[in-house]
Specification:
Length: 119
């Protein structure tokens, strides 16, 4: 009985490991840290929003297709038209790796946030 239980436990652990590796989300080609560094360098705070001390988060939703191309960019959380436009401008420069399911590239819906802080 012990041998059966040990084998069953091993198979359950192996199955859990396989399930966790079946889906990989889309991500920036340069990785998350380099992408954040790039955004910090490229983001230009619109003067009028800086003077008005407009702060917060612009959240974008989008689809990364199975080739890594970005489609259907939409503003989910808006701060102002100028800040939304700047977030989209910088976001459009980021290259993406598609999501993978069972080792195959697939389209996936994603969200990305841009923090605007006047400090």
């Amino acid at each position: 009985m012990l041998k059966f239980s040990t084998t069953l436990i091993f198979l359950l652990i192996l199955a859990q490991g396989l399930n966790s590796q079946q889906v990989e989300p889309a991500e920036p080609l340069s990785g998350n840290k380099l992408t954040r560094d790039f955004i910090c360098e490229e983001l230009v705070y619109p003067v009028e929003e800086l003077e008005n001390k407009t702060e917060g988060t612009v959240k974008l939703s989008f689809v990364v297709d199975n080739k890594g191309d970005v489609e259907n960019i939409k503003v989910v959380n808006s701060l102002s038209p100028a800040l939304d436009k700047e977030a989209i401008r910088v976001f459009s420069m980021i290259m993406w790796r598609p999501a993978y399911r069972l080792g195959q590239p697939v389209a996936s819906m994603q969200e990305y946030e841009f923090e605007f802080d006047t400090k």
